[in-house]
Specification:
alpha+beta; two-stranded parallel ribbon; 9 helices; elongated
Length: 249
């Protein structure tokens, strides 16, 4: 964004560079600004906006020409959690609009025949797995290459029945005992708990051994159970070197 221009001037610049006339971009710009929550700030200079508001202005500038596809490169990195949630609600509204008269920024001149499914397709890169889980399809990348691509549910299904959640104390002792088990492929800290990846079909045996082994080492198990795998679990498994103890086939 050009920080010495106002919010509306930035949108006007990108609209006219792309060939839109004032009769096209001005009414559409006001609809978009209301859509992204910047209608009250149209005369504020971009340099005076917060990080989250700048991201919304960038989205508004991209939407002014009615794109079929948006490419978003880590759009929520560096913004606060509330703004991140607000931005994702905007993205969800864009991609879930069944027809081009909803939301109003997809007007009757949107470039599609009446009754045809409308909206915008979005390709987004993000380091946040909770954001990735909102997408219809996810591709994991390592060293600049996609290592797998599928729906979030199918990706998580690769580890069904193999992720254990362990709560107890002390955490370092729990991690050490778990990792020494022959049927444990990996142990990762998830906040105040551990996620343990067991070999296929071995989860219940691991639960029995760890409950006994941690107690004999002076540790305490508050809870140890099989939990649904998170995308983080899948990504960690897929990212491991094939020579590592817990590489996923």
């Amino acid at each position: 964004m050009y920080e010495d221009l106002t919010v509306l001037e930035n949108i006007r610049f990108f609209a006219e560079v792309r060939g839109l006339s004032p009769s096209e971009w001005l009414p559409r710009s006001m609809e978009i600004l209301d859509f992204v929550g910047l209608g009250k700030f149209k005369d504020r200079r971009a340099g005076q906006l917060s990080g989250g508001m700048k991201q919304k202005l960038g989205l508004a500038s991209a939407l002014v020409t009615r794109p079929r596809l948006l490419l978003l490169d880590e759009p929520t990195t560096g913004v606060d959690p509330v703004t991140r949630q607000d931005f994702w609600q905007l993205i969800i509204k864009l991609v879930s609009s069944p027809h081009f008269d909803s939301p109003p920024i997809f007007g009757e001149n949107g470039g599609r025949s009446a009754g045809q499914a409308g909206g915008v397709s979005v390709i987004i890169s993000t380091p946040y797995m909770d954001e990735a889980s909102r997408c219809h399809r996810v591709g994991f990348m390592k060293n600049g290459k996609i290592i797998v691509e599928d729906t979030p549910s199918n990706l998580r299904a690769r580890l069904n029945g193999r992720i254990l959640e362990l709560r107890g104390s002390p955490l370092n002792l729990l991690r050490h005992v778990a990792y020494e088990d022959a049927d444990v492929e990996d142990v990762q800290a998830f906040g105040d708990r551990l996620h343990i990846r067991a070999r296929e079909g071995k989860a219940q045996e691991v639960i029995h051994r760890l409950t006994s082994g941690i107690g004999s080492e002076g540790g305490q198990v508050d809870e140890l159970r099989v939990v649904p795998p998170a995308l983080e679990d899948v990504f960690i498994a897929l990212s491991e070197d094939k020579n590592h103890k817990g590489a996923l086939p």
